[in-house]
Amino acid sequence: xxxxxxxxxxxxxxxxxxxxxxxxxxxxxxxxxxxxxxxxxxxxxxxxxxxxxxxxxxxxxxxxxxxxxxxxxxxxxxxxxxxxxxxxxxxxxxxxxxxxxxxxxxxxxxxxxxxxxxxxxxxxxxxxxxxxxxxxxxxxxxxxxxxxxxxxxxxxxxxxxxxxxxxxxxxxxxxxxxxxxxxxxxxxxxxxxxxxxxxxxxxxxxxxxxxxxxxxxxxxxxxxxxxxxxxxxxxxxxxxxxxxxxxxxxxxxxxxxxxxxxxxxxxxxxxxxxxxxxxxxxxxxxxxxxxxxxxxxxxxxxxxxxxxxxxxxxxxxxxxxxxxxxxxxxxxxxxxxxxxxxx
Amino acid sequence: xxxxxxxxxxxxxxxxxxxxxxxxxxxxxxxxxxxxxxxxxxxxxxxxxxxxxxxxxxxxxxxxxxxxxxxxxxxxxxxxxxxxxxxxxxxxxxxxxxxxxxxxxxxxxxxxxxxxxxxxxxxxxxxxxxxxxxxxxxxxxxxxxxxxxxxxxxxxxxxxxxxxxxxxxxxxxxxxxxxxxxxxxxxxxxxxxxxxxxxxxxxxxxxxxxxxxxxxxxxxxxxxxxxxxxxxxxxxxxxxxxxxxxxxxxxxxxxxxxxxxxxxxxxxxxxxxxxxxxxxxxxxxxxxxxxxxxxxxxxxxxxxxxxxxxxxxxxxxxxxxxxxxxxxxxxxxxxxxxxxxxx
Amino acid sequence: xxxxxxxxxxxxxxxxxxxxxxxxxxxxxxxxxxxxxxxxxxxxxxxxxxxxxxxxxxxxxxxxxxxxxxxxxxxxxxxxxxxxxxxxxxxxxxxxxxxxxxxxxxxxxxxxxxxxxxxxxxxxxxxxxxxxxxxxxxxxxxxxxxxxxxxxxxxxxxxxxxxxxxxxxxxxxxxxxxxxxxxxxxxxxxxxxxxxxxxxxxxxxxxxxxxxxxxxxxxxxxxxxxxxxxxxxxxxxxxxxxxxxxxxxxxxxxxxxxxxxxxxxxxxxxxxxxxxxxxxxxxxxxxxxxxxxxxxxxxxxxxxxxxxxxxxxxxxxxxxxxxxxxxxxxxxxxxxxxxxxxx
Lengths: 343, 343, 343
Prior knowledge:
- 3 copies of one chain form a homotrimer.
- By secondary structure, chain A is an alpha/beta fold.
- Chain A has helices spanning 13-25, 27-30, 54-65, 87-95, 110-115, 133-150, 169-178, 198-206, 239-245, 256-262, 296-301, 303-314; strands at residues 34-35, 43-48, 69-74, 100-105, 122-127, 158-162, 185-189, 210-214, 226-229, 268-270, 326-327.
- The first copy, chain A, has 2 domains: 8-131 and 302-327, Rossmann fold (3-Layer(aba) Sandwich); 134-299, Aspartate/ornithine carbamoyltransferase (Rossmann fold).
- In chain A, 33% of the residues lie in helices and 15% in strands.
- In chain A, strand 6 (158-162), helix 7 and strand 7 (185-189) form a beta-alpha-beta unit.
- At the A-B interface, helix 3, strand 3 and helix 11 of A face strand 3 and helix 3 of B.
């Protein structure tokens, strides 16, 4: 394993496999049947220069479930950075306080620059339009876990990725990770102007995967194993793109009708969240809530074991955890969500 | 016990009694003579969509004193909620990270809506003009504890509630809890337009309590056991109300002169805090600081054992705590406040 | 030891020496070779009414490394203080929740006022232009530790303090601490209008130290043991001062050329951080990064053992820590920063 986790590009297939195996072993803790304290005394610096509830709390909780303590920091552009402090200085200073650092920052490349100054493990929690490797790992882990449950194999599977494939860093990172594995069939569907960047399509194709691109969800896709939907991120649009997109209607909304027409009982639907649940939103529809094929909450739940695995691996404690697990003694519900079903 | 604590309405008298008994058993920990680690490994999501130092830190500290870890979140309207995420999604996602969730939100009913999506215990930390059940429980606990100290009984006691009884959710919840007990005499004093809502008065009266309403503190009340004061919350006023209230002078300020005229040595004075201590404020006067009848800081201290009891009961660990208490080994002052007196 | 740590003025030389000795014994924990849990169950209230990443995280991490839990609060002027709550009330309320309180506030004297209401230990984390005693202690600790490494003695050493010596509270506190020790030679260099306050110069001189004041770094200083640089804090300038300062060029920037001309191989360069690393900034230059004489990151690292020592001493657990230290089991890099050198 490298010192930092900045991009999925730096991960070999063996390293990815190792992380997924460790994540799998974290499941009893993530499911709150077991407790470990292996990182007791360690401190995480959870540095969010950009608002994020989900990712921040997920990293925080994962570190706590390993026994560590967390120093959260949000929006600190108003503090020392505003006084002209460099990323180099901030990084080196935080390294004296913390055993690991998670950082989210709106500027692409900033987390890598931060990591250059330190020997303390740094995890990229999202750098603007750049990378968000822990999300890609939990997405891959979700596909692997769901396929295992369904008795499917990854090789030869058919994945549909839809939405804003241009700005969606999660699909960029996921597709790179998937490309390390046996040949897949990948169908990309996005409105004109929001297509997956060409070099990514070429990279995946060059690794032996079959990639198709379409402009509408109203097509014949054949059998689908995974439908991965993303939000149209209007806040990242240029003015020009906003105008051209005004004509696009509800065509990119995945809903129950879409599943009825295109999917089987074993298709799973994913989304990196948050999804826009307001009426008329061009996003994954709420009419799928309660459908067992909707895997979005199992997916977000997987953030805990995967981020535990990242911490455990970077900090070299993955072999210590199982030796010290204790039983949880407090009340844990059978399912976390009221609409969850035992599958 | 129900899964969630959303409103005092859902609590039976037996459940309230149980919570108060558990709170009483938490006292050695809250007083920092003992330590427990029964929730070691558990994670609290402390979600504050609205600023609150006191309540947020109180819940946080109570969970820590049970051994758990806390993920604090403040003002996250700027994050995923702003992107159109539903309370349903936020709730289900947080449920995968946390063992219990405290939530404060400016919109009445929002915490209940949030709780509908999850099987993880949710505690209402205040939903706008709605409910704030942990405050009502700590108020009741304070009355019970002070009465025990003074050798008084709740049945037949005379309570004066004054201030903004229309908008004050703490007095609404408290009066509902009190109404479960033996008949009381309750005097309500508020300026015109800020009276206790009629249906609440009717409810309490229908349960056998003697309720009187007055418009001035300059009356003959007879013996008073409790004077519960509240701040005039001008930030919740309509324009019309602001105008009509402009004529009201200092008549609703409880101060030393009021106590000298209307109270005995065993009357206690309460307030949900914060109080406005600026000169001319229409609030509980600082000239009572140091008077042993001023129970406001004992009241806020009681937030710790009561919130510990809420967590312990919802998470089903209330019987484990005493078996594992250890002695505190660090310096603990005899009294927390310089003006506290050993009573 | 007193109950609170509000100012270096309240510390005797014996108390300072005790704190430095305890800090020294915290080094194995700060260096992450050892873990202690002596404050397990204790809660720190880390109250920052003013933004500060560095100081806030440093106190937070130090308390965590002693085994305690931390409730962070930032910018809560928007909460109860905005509703007219007094420092007295805030202090007394927080005292019921927390075992120790760190407070930063923009108003000079506010932390002392806060501390007057409570018997719980309060540490001044900076009160505007007032005091910041933990910074002064870690600065002194750094000088002592570096001198020990270099085989030097404090008595007779020559220190150069430069930058904004008028507004820089860290140099005010440091110079007071240093004045408790054997006679030093202290050279103060600042632009006109930003000189060290006269009563401080007089105090130090009256204690037997040799103090010289200059207006330019382009002088012959003789041998220098310590160069302590500070940022020109323009945000604290009056309009008049801003104008007069407009003519001052890069004369107050300590850089490699300055070290080549004025310093030896055993001179150390310090800075309270953050430093302004933007091009043209009138601050310590980045061309010194990687130079072993640049002690600024060793200095900030020292914040952990010194703040651990402050907590341990105020809470009376300094004799318990070594009895219970365990080995760290996670990955710890040989040096925290990539440019650090083993000295």
